[in-house]
Amino acid sequence: MLDYWNEYPKIQENLIQVKKLISQRLVINNKSIEEAITKFSSTGGKMIRPALFFLFADFGNKKDQEQLVKIAASLELLHSATLVHDDIIDDSPTRRGMPSIQSRFGKDVAVYTGDFMYTSYFELLAECMSQTPFLLKNAQSMKKVLQGELTQMAGTFNPDQTIKDYLRNINGKTAELIRLSCHEGAYFGGADEKLQSRAKRIGSAIGLAFQVYDDILNFSLELGNEQKPILTDVQQGIFTLPLLIARDEQPVIIRPYLEKPETLSQQELIQLALYVDKFGGIAGALKFAENLTQKALTEIQELPEGKSKEILKKVATQLLERSY
Amino acid sequence: MLDYWNEYPKIQENLIQVKKLISQRLVINNKSIEEAITKFSSTGGKMIRPALFFLFADFGNKKDQEQLVKIAASLELLHSATLVHDDIIDDSPTRRGMPSIQSRFGKDVAVYTGDFMYTSYFELLAECMSQTPFLLKNAQSMKKVLQGELTQMAGTFNPDQTIKDYLRNINGKTAELIRLSCHEGAYFGGADEKLQSRAKRIGSAIGLAFQVYDDILNFSLELGNEQKPILTDVQQGIFTLPLLIARDEQPVIIRPYLEKPETLSQQELIQLALYVDKFGGIAGALKFAENLTQKALTEIQELPEGKSKEILKKVATQLLERSY
């Protein structure tokens, strides 16, 4: 998936170095697990977090390439660890087009594999940022991510969940790490404090918008078919923005669906998706995400001119047009 | 279980402070989960790791009580996190006489709860040891623990596992953290390097011996009865020292039991336990553990005179007499 960065050879080259470092770090005494986790954490996604990190690092004048690669790798490793653990929880058969660690090796290996990735992440931080405030910031970020996950967990199947609850959860579970990636890029690249704050705000907006777009996609009927389950979030008791907007608009019609969502038939799920659209849930969520995207673009506009600014503009727009 | 320390009020007082700090750190936005994890990580065990830490801290002359309490808490939190994740893997219904996190709240909450504890551990380290070599040492220790767990996982159901494999695994999964507790105690208490090295060796010996005794207990027929499963390790494909010694002694008789251990009947398991005893597996493992205990006591004898030395002697003997 690094093909995504074909047009940006400098970023691509940096990400290849990150991949290489990750493989070197994930060494364990079992070749098949080692291969699976290395593949998983280095070939799967677009590596958005390290890419944002390098883009923001470009606005500074301090360049310690070895340190930058380590920090970028730490961000991807932390993200990968959360994915491995998420797959246990969702019983996901696949991830990034490959069998998930847990479906291939069992949940036992998956639990420890995720833990092992957390550890490698922690080791990288200990090596390269112990003298900076970002060691503690990382611990606090990781705590926020997990508080977001736990609070979302605890709130599943709650038909009275508020939009505020939803926003707080996604601010933790998704936006926090993207915000940290941008902030660390600016800091470790040597940008000034004003630019660091801007990087954080851009990261927040991109992170939140990304999650909202992703949640909207889950209501798309085109993506579901008879073979494929639809509205999987709803069935798992995870009530996201489109649904919450529709519920607040027409509680009498929508709320009954949220009482026992795991028992809804295919027919009822389709009806619910149509209602969510009809009562403005999709439009409202889209509007919300577009505002965030606009906010990110306005802030990006204020960055110093240059290649990185242009790439950030393109990437923010593309990423937020459709989920990945 | 802090009653165990009734005779040692100073240690008990320190451990109460550790419990308090842990409760303060494990704050999440859900009261029932928060209560369960706080209870779990502060009321359950004997808190052996923080206790060993404080005992060794006593041999130095540098006393920053706040820092010591934080580090002791980090050791207990790391241990608790591994227990929460172990219970997912074993599907354990109980832990420390209470329902396990996963049986009470489900594996989803248990995965994130363990992760959340790791994070709180990491946060404590970031706060109080970022200027010392122990930040990196902690990351490396945690990596060893997980490599031990993963290697053991990968080696389950392997009838040709060697005694060397077994020792390497328990050196990682159990001894590492106990060794770290003793080493950190000596270092952060301000003891000299010679005493730090001794603390490490004592921790290694105690940690290994403890695990071997624990593994021997799993072969005790008295502990099993018709209601309670026996030889649970064997049934899960975990082949420990008593079994490996007996297999090496009488491969023709023992090895067939290791081919499909999950299919063995109650009768066959009892027969296997009797064989392991008959062919010297229990005696051999006991001898091995006793040698380690003796090694620990000989090293403890070399420590400076004082209350801590006396307590260490008693504790090492008691702990290693029977598992806990």
From TrEMBL, chains A, B:
Cofactor list: Mg(2+)
Domain of life of the source: Bacteria
Family matches, as InterPro entries: Isoprenoid_synthase_dom_sf, Polyprenyl_synt, Polyprenyl_synt_CS
GO molecular function: metal ion binding; prenyltransferase activity
Gene Ontology process terms (BP): isoprenoid biosynthetic process
Metal-binding is among the record's keywords: yes
Record key words, sorted: Magnesium, Metal-binding, Transferase
Family, as annotated: Belongs to the FPP/GGPP synthase family.
PANTHER family: ALL TRANS-POLYPRENYL-DIPHOSPHATE SYNTHASE PDSS1, GERANYLGERANYL PYROPHOSPHATE SYNTHASE
Protein name (database record): Heptaprenyl diphosphate synthase, component II
